[in-house]
Amino acid sequence: MLARTAFALLLAASVAYFVRFVYWRFHHPIQRVPPLRWDHPGERLWRVFCEVLLQTRVIRERPVAGLLHALVMWGFFAFAWVSAEHLSLGVRGLEAARPSDSWYGVFAAAWAVAVTIGILGLTFRRFVLRPAVLGPLSGTSAVVAALIVLLMTTYLLGWRGLEAGSAAWQVNWWVHTLSFLGMLVVIPQSKHLHLLAGPVAIFFRGRTTSGMRALREGDDDDLGMVRFTDLAPKDLLDLHACVECGRCTQACPANVVGQSLNPKEVILQMQRGLLAGGEVIAGTEEEAAAGKVWVTERDLFQCLSCGACEEACPVGIEHVGRKILDLRRGLVSEGRTTSDKVGELFTTMERAPHNPWGVSHEARRKFLEAEKFPFFDGTQEWLFWMGCGLNYDPHGQEVARAMRRILDAGAVSWGVLAQETCCGEPGRRAGNEYLYLQLSEKLVEVFQGKKVRKILTCDPHCARMFDADYRAIPDYESLGIEVQHHSETLARLLPSLPLEPVREAVTFHDPCYLARGRGLTAEPRAVLAASGASLIEMAHHGKRTFCCGAGGGQLYLAEDAPGHDRQRVNHRRFAEAAATGAAIVAVACPYCPIMLKDAAAYAGRDDVAVLDIAEILARRLRAPALSC
Amino acid sequence: MSVLVVMEQQEGAWHKLSWEALAAGLELGRALGEPVAAAVVGEALDALETELAAQAVERVLSLRHPLLAAYTPDGYTTALEALIRETKAAWVVLPHTYQVRDFAPKLATALDCGLIPDVIGLRVEGGAPVFVRQLFQGKLNADVVFEGPPPYLVSVQAGAFRADQLQPGASPAPVERPAVALESKQIRTRPLERFQEAKRTVDLASAAIIVSVGRGIKGPENLPMMEELARALGAELGASRPVCDSGWLPLERQVGSSGQTVAPKLYLAIGISGAIQHLVGMKGSRTVAAINKDPTAPIFEVADYGIVGDLFEIVPALTAALKSSS
Questions:
Q1: Does A567 touch chain B (CB under 8 A)?
Q2: How far apart are CA B308 and CA B313, in angstroms?
Q3: For the purposes of burial, counting CB atoms within 10 Å of the CB of A502, is it exposed (0-12), middle (13-18) or buried (19 or more)?
């Protein structure tokens, strides 16, 4: 009787402690907007099934550690019934114990061995191998590992090693019980809360990476993320889901080349600030050193917004659009940025002709005139949105020429705007929401006036703006515009094009905003295959691609001049591409070739050509038969 | 109807554009047949007064006051407004500096007179000056004349008037120090310490001629050849980003979006393909000449003159030709 009472009290206390601590971690004054996402529930459930139950992401990023983790996690599920039975015995009284003879006991015993192997392997890795990415040694990890080993060995002892009901068996039962209840105490106050928050965060994660929210309608105080009270429900989940594994940091191109940005630390600093009752999230390094803010402006403005961190994260955290870019927006809106380069970019974009290079319209007008591009007047099916890359960059203009040949060969009805301004992408990613709103407002008027229904662009950044960011503007959304990146259009046109494929070795650099930002990896490859390319993949390809160094406004910020103390993102990416031995690096974004050709010149590799998929395809078009 | 040139100094050093403003003022005075006075504003100005008095001006007007030690729009406007009213100067010529841009509109408003900013030329037609200023990013020149009673304010663009052709006066001009009535309560701004931009060891932005090299020069061992050409042209040496990334030249010589933005009279691009981030750094150049072996190199799209060929043949020949002609 005494034992039953003691057990009931201990169980109640542990559960109360657990609930209290979870409440403490999640109970903060935050925003209701944007709410948790419930769209595409089927896809979300499937994602949870794959990433949580099958542990696909955990294993993909780190096969050995991932498998060991999976053994532990699967074991936990196998043990659900064992634990329920174990606890029920505490309520019923230990004298009700019977020797286990069910098949489930054998099954659980097998898992107990697997879990022990898993947790000992992970412990060896964490405390002996000590990979730097895991950060300083964590005491709770040791406690949790010890508790898990105790749980497993006491189970095995109770199952076969000891006589059911004997004194030794009872002691063993209590050790198992206390270990179990200990877990309830440890989990909510450590990164092991990911057991609860992780699967939920994965369910509510955005369908693509780096998505920014619209400012809260009617809330004049919303200038972007400034204070901890600006967090939305998903942000709160993210901060508490973090398991501190550092996969994000390992994937981060800025971090890889030696910059100070560390996405894991951004999340953890935000978590620490939130729990410590902090007020303002980000500021200068001096403010951070003085303990006034938690994240530094310097780190935030190194972000390429490539989304590699979000793609690598096993617990569904959205580091980029929902935190880093939103924090930049908060800093810019409050005038708290100190970078001259950021100010220069905004000034250039604010002034006519409103492009991030400040190049005169004249250059584009001459090009369109010389090439006799048709102007869009509402009668054509597609508006070919050239974007600043194709408008002003000499290589971009080559891509525009290639697109023209393909579109005409495919009998596509298309036209370009006589005048284009920037869609606002670099401005918005660098944090200038006002600039973006100004530019988008003008553009939406143009789209309305020209009766635009379908937009085609070679720039995945522009495509992202028109297909995601702009959709938060009611006047734009009501136009019901369909947006395609040219890889989609070209893939669709392939059957109708007169092609003469020529076999050549090509490696494809997936643009971040296409692969992760739009979720497309097959289309550009289909275009390359139709051109005759035999593809040699880099280690970082598809959704795990590695940024060229241009994203998140960095093409224009490029504030990395001082010293040769570290590698550049584009140099690293080009080296990876060149190592495939392919003489052609294919791209599908106008910014990647700017960065990669720069790196090719640096490496002295003028034998490696950087070409857009449209250029590669256009070269394989059979010359049109001359008509008399 | 005299002419008054307002010179700009900072901490005892002339803003070099002041001399161009003085050249413009003297040109205007000659054309109108009017005397030209020069004014300077500050606190301790002895050396500057002497230097200015050596010029061919009728007199030097030195506005000295402790409250004028550092620039404030209120202080400068108050002092200059009183001076212009007192001397009844009709034409006030200023250099188009950042400081002048700041206070000239305020001064014009205080005097209730017109201001023609950023002029690039002047002439006198029928006894009245006509000023030339640029429109539409320099695509058109406009002739502008004043209406109404004087005074008239004019500021001159950098590089429009020749300061190097200033001739000293026959004898030093008298220096006058009119009393400046200024009280601290009239000045609403309190200047803090001057912000010092990181000193660049190389100032490409103000270079008249730049010889810029790209990865086409193959290696640092070929730099002396390029430096020789730069010397022969009296040019500064610039470079593209890959050249500086490779450490062949220091980063402060980098032209482009991550380096310096330049606007020389002549930009000679050698072995530079012309990537967009380089072009945006030199698009303000008056004349662009390019040497590149690749006839499709984008640099030729923006070049006024282009040579397709081997730069290792062309550059020495160019240097030799320059040397023999001079």
A1: no
A2: 11
A3: exposed
A chain contacts of residue B279, beta-carbon cutoff 8 Å: 359, 394
ipTM of the modeled complex: 0.77
Distance from CA of B239 to the nearest CA of A (A): 13
Distance between B148 CA and the closest CA of chain A, angstroms = 34
Separation between Cα atoms, residue B298 and residue B310, nearest integer Å: 17
Q: Which of residues 252-271 of B touch A (CB under 8 A)?
A: 254, 257-259
A420 three-class SS: coil
pLDDT tier at A136, thresholds 50, 70, 90:
confident
Percent of residues in chain B assigned helix, strand, coil, to nearest 5: 35, 25, 40
Whether the CB-CB separation of A352 and A428 falls below 8 Å is answered with: no
Q: Are B273 and A601 a contacting pair at CB < 8 A?
A: yes
Between CA A69 and CA A76 the distance in angstroms is: 11
With CA atoms as reference, report the closest residue to A137 among A148, A128, A127: A127
For the stretch A122-132, pLDDT in tens is 999 999 999 98
pLDDT at B138 exceeding the cut of 80: no
> Are B258 and A559 inside 8 Å of each other by CB?
yes
Check B275 against A393: CB less than 8 A apart: yes
Angle of helix A591-603 relative to helix A569-578, nearest 10 degrees, comes to 80
Beta-ladder partners of B168:
B55
Asked if A357's CB is within 8 angstroms of B276's CB, the reply is yes
Residue A372 per-residue DSSP state:
T
Look up the pTM and report it: 0.82
- pLDDT at res. A320: 97
